[in-house]
Amino acid sequence: MKRGPVIAFAVFLTWGVVGQSTVAVGGLPPVRAVAMVGLLAAGLLVELGILREIYFGRRPSWWLLAAIAVVTIAQILTGGVTLADDPVLLASAALFVLRPPWSFAVFGVIVAASAPFGEPGRWWIAPGIVFLSGGSLYLLGWALRLVRQLRLARRDVAELAAVREREAVMRELDAGVGAGLAEIARLLDSPGEGDLDEVTRLARATADEARRIAHGFRHSSLGKITDV
After folding, report:
1. 43 near 70, Cβ under 8 Å?
2. What does the longest C-alpha to C-alpha distance in the chain come to?
């Protein structure tokens, strides 16, 4: 499947949102639970938008990072720090959107600021989770881009092979079929005694040569270029 890694990554992110949504529905009043589920889904959509830009080799726009930040704040206000899921997405988005060294500096600030998301007395757990999860999302995003680049490279190699094979076929046609047709034309311009038999022999030999080249063409990779 050409887009298998992308789909798998999207499923992975969606699964996390589903888990958080289950917690939100069970631990909040109905109205706030619905709002929290909507915010979690919004964060997922923005993160998928960032990954889409990365996959196609484009640096995500700054407004995507701003959107993740807004969603994170809204989650904290709606469900509290224990239900907010987007510090991880915000950390990875900072790495994707900003350029070094700012990306790493902001990532470090987000990791440090996530300490209140942890349990009392175990403040280091939340920063560790944000660091590992956000960094993993960043690496996975660039892995998706690498997969696409490899596919593009494979397609370019296939196209180059097709061009070279096409040139080889043209040389064979010129050397074999072209030469035979030129000789037939010469004989027909000034036919002499016995030339008809020679023309017949050359025509058959030329046809055989054309069939040989066509047979090789059908069994070659010419024209079978791998799509991305």
Report:
1. no
2. 110
CA torsion, points 95, 57, 59, 65, in degrees to nearest 10? -60
Per-residue confidence in pLDDT tens, the chain, 228 aa: 455 555 665 665 666 666 656 655 666 777 877 887 788 788 878 878 887 887 777 888 888 888 888 888 887 777 765 545 557 778 888 888 888 889 899 999 988 888 776 666 777 877 888 888 888 878 877 887 788 888 888 888 888 888 887 787 777 777 777 777 787 777 777 776 666 777 788 788 888 777 777 776 665 554 454 444
Q: Three-class SS of residue 122?
A: coil
Please tell me whether the overall predicted TM-score, pTM, comes out greater than 0.90 for this model.
no
Is the Cβ–Cβ distance between 83 and 22 less than 8 Å? no
Nearest to 96 by CA among 136, 38, 127, 130: 136
**DSSP 3-state of 130:** helix
Residue with token string 């403040």: 123
